[in-house]
Design a protein that fits this description.
Blueprint: E1 4-6, H1 23-40, H2 43-49, E2 63-64, E3 79-84, E4 95-97, E5 100-107, E6 110-117, E7 122-130, E8 150-152, E9 155-159, E10 164-169, E11 175-180, H3 181-185, E12 199-201, E13 204-207, E14 216-220, E15 226-230, E16 243-247, E17 250-256, E18 260-265, E19 271-276, E20 289-291, E21 294-299, E22 304-313, E23 316-325, E24 335-338, E25 341-346, E26 351-356, E27 362-366, E28 370-375, E29 378-383, E30 387-392, E31 400-405, E32 419-421, E33 424-429, E34 432-437
Parallel strand pairs: 2-28
Antiparallel strand pairs: 1-11, 3-34, 4-5, 5-6, 6-7, 8-9, 9-10, 10-11, 12-13, 13-14, 14-15, 16-17, 17-18, 18-19, 20-21, 21-22, 22-23, 24-25, 25-26, 26-27, 28-29, 29-30, 30-31, 32-33, 33-34
Length: 441
């Protein structure tokens, strides 16, 4: 593959030797294991409760494992721990790992990736390609970063708006390798810039150049070398980010293009199934949801929401539409599935919704529009106008227990998705990022 630049060949890797032998050795190994767990904590707690490795979290479902959080906020809102400015323009959310926080922004027509410690001190700032700018008059206020950095195994990966994919050492920001997606896969910059947050599983990195020589690709995360390419997917970039799901004997990567929802075999890159789903503006921005053999997808501008059943027939997967509704036509604020119900905001159907997952029936609706995140039986609704709301996670009724005005970081809507991690609520608006203390004392 052309234009892959490898700048550093250092691997941050640790190995645990397998202990075998006599019963005595096994007992000793068990003792050592328990000691390690007691000293350093379990894998679940490290990977779920204290960290948020990528856009919408490790499981890509936008549900935090945090507990012990406030159920009601003071009138003025939770305590501000710190505020960071100087991020530039953009809608990138945050990822958190190894006591570092990562995000991205645009300054002077240049995209940057940032790293901060958990006290808000900047550790490093590195460029990642020219920023995207629109020539369309209605979209000139939409400039700035889109993709959220993805952390994995000591490396931070980021896709810039103009197609520069780069890997950085998480401690120093030193660039390890980069790849120009547009040049390698004969792709045009999407209408609103590349917005996907790349997905990593094992040694594989998945992303969508949406080019003539490849719509979706699988790369080796260590050096950017091509593993497989898929040229079967139709449409152009849909601006959503992929999810992984095991079903029908395949580990699938599921996502949306501008005109369809699809599933691809992660082993071979073969297209397993596809359902046409194109809205009035060919913009599918919301990540799909997989649950028990069903795939949910949503699209704004009046298109609505759809539930697809994946039927197994031999080695084939045959998709079937279960229901479609114009309700909750999600723009780009995301949808969460919790206990059999879908929560999110509509665009033209305007409002916050709760829908039954299996039927699409509306359980409740209230005014508003924005993005959301879940933690500790509560939803955090960020209105695109800047108001943050704390809402009980129930399908019975809309029940708000607190609200406050989020940070003002300059022009534009509050479109960056918020994060709950480490007893904190992180809200980004353009140039400004604020950390709030939401732990219940």
């Amino acid at each position: 593959m052309k234009n892959i630049k490898i700048l550093l060949n250092t691997q941050h890797k640790s190995k645990i030797d397998t202990i075998t032998g006599t019963r005595k050795n096994k007992i000793y190994a068990g003792f050592i294991y328990c000691l390690i767990i007691s000293l350093f904590g379990g894998v679940t707690s490290a990977r779920e409760k204290g960290e948020w490795h990528c856009f919408h979290g490790l499981n890509r479902n936008n549900m935090s494992a945090e507990t012990g959080l406030l159920k009601v906020w003071p009138k003025a809102g939770p305590k501000v721990l710190w505020t960071v400015t100087g991020l530039g323009e953009g809608y990138s959310s945050v990822s958190i790992a190894k006591e570092y926080l990562f995000t991205a922004g645009m300054i002077n027509n240049q995209s940057y990736v940032f790293a901060f410690d958990l006290n808000g001190k900047q550790i490093w700032k590195k460029p990642n390609g020219q920023a995207w700018e629109s020539t369309m008059s209605h979209a000139r206020g939409y400039t700035g970063s889109r993709s959220t950095p993805t952390y994995d195994d000591g490396v931070v990966y980021h896709l810039g708006e103009t197609g520069r994919l780069a890997a950085f050492d998480y401690r120093t920001g030193k660039e390890i390798w980069f790849l120009n997606l547009r040049e390698n896969f004969d792709a045009e910059i999407p209408e609103y810039g590349y917005s996907e947050s790349v997905h990593i599983d094992g040694d594989r990195l998945y992303c969508s150049p949406a080019g003539e020589k490849g719509f979706m690709v699988c790369l080796n995360k260590k050096d950017g070398e091509l593993i497989w390419v898929n040229e079967e997917i139709t449409g152009v970039a849909g601006y959503s980010s992929p999810i992984l799901a095991e079903f029908g004997g395949y580990l699938q990567i599921i996502n949306m293009s501008s005109n369809c929802v699809y599933g691809v075999d992660t082993k071979t890159g073969k297209l397993l199934w596809s359902v046409e789903y194109e809205g009035p503006r060919s913009l599918n921005n919301t990540d799909p949801i997989f649950h028990n053999g069903y795939v949910f997808a949503s699209s704004g501008y009046g298109k609505g929401s759809i539930l697809i059943k994946l039927n197994i027939s031999g080695k084939e997967i045959i998709p079937e539409t279960v229901w479609h509704t114009t309700l909750m036509d999600n723009h780009h604020g995301g949808v969460i599935l919790l206990d059999g119900y879908l929560y999110g905001a509509g665009d033209r159907s305007r409002g916050w919704f709760c829908l039954d997952f299996m039927t699409g029936e509306q359980m409740w609706k209230t005014r508003g529009k924005g993005s959301l995140v879940y933690a500790d039986n509560m939803f955090y609704f960020l209105e695109e106008t800047g108001t943050m709301k704390l809402v009980k996670a129930t399908s019975e009724k809309y029940d708000e227990t607190g609200s406050f005005e989020g940070p003002d970081g300059g022009k534009g809507m509050h479109w960056a998705h918020s994060v709950v991690c480490g007893g904190r609520l992180y809200i980004r608006h353009n140039d400004k990022l604020v950390a709030y203390d939401i732990e219940s004392k």
